[in-house]
Amino acid sequence: MTKWIRTAIMLLPLLFATGCSQISDLVQGVTGGSSSGEPEMLRQATIAGDWHVKQMEIEVEAGGEVAILLRLADGDQVDGYFYLEKGKDIDFAVSGDSLIYQSESADPEGSGKVGSDRFSFTASQAQGSTYSLTFRDSPETGASQATAVVFLEVIYPSSGSLFIPVDTQQPG
Q: For residues 65 and 59, what is the distance between their CA atoms, to the nearest angstrom?
């Protein structure tokens, strides 16, 4: 009897692991791991139980924009950076209830677009509790339409949370 129970206990995790693997394969086909406009989580970690670090790759279609949302408490500090892996330049802004930070180009023409930047801000009650990190790829007139690929790292308190909005538009 005890031999049968031990065998069942050893096989139970195998059954769950196989089932989860099959579900994961089915969902992967439906959601598509890194389709355009859907950020792909590359790495995530918790530091000393107090901070979350998330690294992701974001595809921004020409003429499109992608927003990453952070829900923070008053006084929470956020630090991060991004750089373009593919593409020439991109618009980047951080906003709460109003604009907090916008990347500025070193280009004397002042296009406002950049290839990389580092940002840091402190959440305040005056700006609300939800903050948006927005990447916008607005191509120049006459420029070829290309997708930009951005690497983003964000460090924020473990009391906060990061959301990636779901695109509800139907293809067509």
A: 9
Give the distance between the most distant pair of CA atoms in the chain: 81
Q: Which of 167, 153, 168 is nearest to 119 (CA)?
A: 153
Q: Are 86 and 125 in contact (CB under 8 A)?
A: no
The pair phi, psi for residue 147, each rounded to 5°, is: -85, 135
The answer, as to whether pTM is greater than 0.85, is: no
Residues 127-161: pLDDT tens digits?
Answer: 999 999 999 987 665 556 688 999 999 999 999 99
| C-alpha span between 170 and 172 (Å, rounded) | 6
Length of the chain: 172
Look up tokens 């406009």; give the residue: 37
Closest-CA residue to 92 (of 110, 67, 72, 71): 67
| Element of type H or E holding 15 | helix 2-31
